[in-house]
Structure of Formate dehydrogenase subunit alpha:
Amino acid sequence: DSKAADRTVDSVCPYCGVGCQLTYHITGQHAEDERILFVEGRDGPSNQNRLCVKGRFGFDYPRHPSRLTTPLIRRPGVPKGLDPAFDPARPLTHFAEASWEEALDVAARGLVDLKAAHGPDALAGFGSAKCSNEEAWLFQKLVRTGFGSNHVDHCTRLCHASSVAALMECIGSGAVTASFMQALQADVVLLTGCNPTINHPVAATYFKQAARNGTKLIILDPRGQALDAYAHRSVRFTPGGDVALYNAMLNVIVSEGLYDDAYIAEHTEGFEALKAHVSDMTPEAMSGLCGVDPDTIRDIARLYATADKAMIFWGMGISQHVHGTDNARCLISLALACGQTGRPGTGLHPLRGQNNVQGASDAGLIPMVLPDYQPVGDAQVRAAFEELWNTTLEERPGLTVVEIMDAIHAGQIKGMYIQGENPAMSDPDLHHARGALARLEHLVVQDLFVTETAQFADVILPASSWMEKDGTVTNTNRQVQLGRAAVALPGEARPDWWILQEIARRFGLPWDYAHPREVFAEMKRGMASLDNITWERLERENSVTYPCPAEDAPGADVVFSESFPRTGGKAKFAPTRPLPPDEPVDAAFPTVLITGRQLEHWHTGSMTRRSQVLDALEPEAVASVSPSELLRLGLHPGEALTITTRRGAITLKARVDPLMMEGMVFVPFCYVEAAANLLTNPALDPDGKIPEFKYAACRLGPA
Ligand code: SF4
């Protein structure tokens, strides 16, 4: 009832990269009694008043009884590890409450001492794509100027690092070339390795709207999905057969002369080499690898190539492979060969996952680049940041998420600071990742709850939820948007930027920010992408797209119409060859395990499983299999199913999903009681360093 609300605050959804704008309706006048009553969609550029179930109902987790409201320090002698009897509703026996002064001193001293004893390479940090741009900037600045290394990363490594690697290599920019709203102007939209209805629900409404208006949707994926009902062609390919399929499409485009000669000559380099490279990858030669018949391959290649305006969208079904970078290279080649970038209704769009994974990456939460993707190895780049920060910077790129876990086991990394990420649930091969966390000599975790990762911590610092702070975030469309504090912080919890500043000061850094707007002002001095976007402008307009040519002009929804940001201004074709999965199925492990998200839950579930409505909708761990697979196993829906890989086993309820192929099982990774990542393969893509979450050989059986 809107009349029951005392006030409203305009902000942005804290979940996915769509970045829906919303309004919180709040009751109560004081910190103790105020609460968010309900949430309404607002007329933002990427949602036009729409919200999905998470945005609409997932707002109550900050007031969950298990919310951290005071700093905690591990009691002496308590061994580190995941406590199987852990119950957030019970008093914490492993940790003792502490004052902020004491907790910050212990947190920082442990890290400072390790650096003094073993050097800067002994420390690493994970920032968070759930935090604001300003917090991401401060986190990477702390690691680079305080810890003294580039060992800083975040969850982009687990979602689109391979896409970014390919985009940087081929077009010179890691962000999308056009917003998803441009789908409304396209004649053909190719969606591959993504399931927007589940993962980017409001973006999916634009694809449906486009289809209703006559846009032809081509969906390529091993799994079926709700958008199939709107598709002109929906094609299932063999898991891991993507590079073969895309190369066969390129072969058709080349052999039938469907490419755009003029565009290729003016805007690209390397097409002759690509032509020669794909000449033997005919639909007939690739059909066995990708499981798609040659006529269908020809049909979809012609549909895409002959469209006047066509866009390609992809998701983690493409990126999370040992050949994830190759997948993205292929999709970029398709767009370049057909001249499908730089105009309205054309473009390349990796659908970004977290609400701020684009912004956190832009802000430099990446081990090989400083903010705006400027290489740490470039002396000129370093000199500019050394002047800005009055420091000396390390030139060697740092380690990535999974490499940091390996380096802990190898004895190199001894201390970590983890802000808002949950590697004890999100990393591949959790026995390995949790073993690494337990080995750390000093671990500081900054979060809202005693997450699975926080259970390994020496010090836990109670942080701020999105509803409790001001800050900017950048969505998948390159729209920088302003979030506003809606409710007060509970108990002793503090804003993340304040906590980071206190740790930095204990490293001897003279930080003195009074508000996130001052951090944003500093970011603008190091990030040309933020030119003409000011905090004041965001307060007025709520959302501005980068790049933006002037303070009174809108940002560019479509980029690279004239040239690409590479030396010489031309984009590059990067040929690829099909590679088998790292761990192909065999007689002992004959089924393909894929992992991902559910509509109702977000990543490791730390927020949505503490949200009443969302938890009621999906309260327990399930594994989705095809009806025939269930029949073969002799199981009924809801009965217990055990999934075993070379790394572990989990037992959870079987769910029938007619959209699943036989020979596949899908498990969401948000359930600690049946943690999907106990099973996943940590093998990495050599370029993006992303693990192969979308293919592990497994065995199914009744529990
Ligand atoms: Fe939030 Fe994404 Fe849903 Fe929009 S689509 S309401 S941003 S979770």
Observations:
- The chain has a mean pLDDT of 96.
- Residues 13, 15-16, 18-20, 47, 51-52, 54-55, 201-202 surround iron/sulfur cluster (CB under 6 Å).
- The two ends are 47 Å apart (CA to CA).
- DSSP finds 23 helices and 30 strands in the chain.
